[in-house]
Each structure stands twice: as C-alpha cells, then as structure tokens.
Specification:
Blueprint: E1 13-19, H1 28-34, E2 39-42, H2 49-55, E3 61-63, E4 80-85, E5 88-93, E6 110-112, E7 120-124, E8 127-131, E9 147-152, E10 155-157
Parallel strand pairs: 1-2, 2-3, 5-6, 6-8
Antiparallel strand pairs: 1-9, 4-5, 7-8, 9-10
Amino acid sequence: MTPSLRLRVTKPVEVIGLISDTHGLVRPQALDALRGVDLIVHAGDIGKVEVLDALKPIAPLHAIKGNNDRGVWAKKVRGTKTISVGGTRLFLIHDVNNLDFDPFERGIAAVISGHSHKPSIVERDGVLFVNPGSAGPRRFKLPVAVGKLRIADGHLNIPY
C-alpha cells in the first residue's frame, strides 16, 4: 500500500482588505469596498464588537487591539499578531511607533498598522509599511479610507 500524497493547494493571488480606526463606526461604503477580498485585517481602534461582527461575514478576519479598545470584548483581542498569507508573513500592530524589532530580520514582508488615521504606503529596508488610514469618524481633514493588499506568487503589491 502506498502512502497517500498530501497536496497543499493555494490560490495564485490573495487579496487582503485593510481597515483601521473605525472607532465603532461601520460605514456601508467600507463594507462595500471590502466585499470580494479573501481576508480582512483590522489594524486596531475597533471601537465596539459590532464592527467585528459586521466584517466577519465578508471574509475571514484578523483584528488587533488599538489604544482605544477597552471593555470585556477587547480583552479577547490581541495587541499584535503575525499572520502568513500566500507564503508571505505580515505583522499587525496598531501604532507602528511601538514596533520594537527589525521586521526584515524576522522574515516579515509587510507591517500593517493604524493609529495615525493617515493612509500611507512606504517601503523601508525591504519591508512594506502600510497604514490604510481611518474608516471611522472623519478626523481633521484626513480622508476616510480602506485599503487592499495583493499577494501574488509571494510578492506584495497594492492593487487599489
């Protein structure tokens, strides 16, 4: 009897929806923008558990706690998280200023953060740093925003 083979089949392209700083506000436009993604990352300052409940039916969800996430529900949410998508490692942290290690040395391809409410995409020392901005209440003159990150064949890019 020959042993059976186990094949790991992965999609050639993974699209990750990025959202942060909702502060309890679930905008229908944000939900619409995230429909069709393979995975959602919420980079903190969720505001209330109902935000997570609204995101979960769209796609599998990874969420981390922000500095304003308090209460019983928030105790179940981790402060940072490393995930692997399509063979690519991503590190989730709310405030990138609290990053206390070299992500490149740990094999991290991208750091996803929030906190500033300002959308940004920067490559530093071989690591992509992405902040989708805030999808919650408008702050100052900053835009309301979400983002998408595409992983294809182990390579990252921002499709939209």
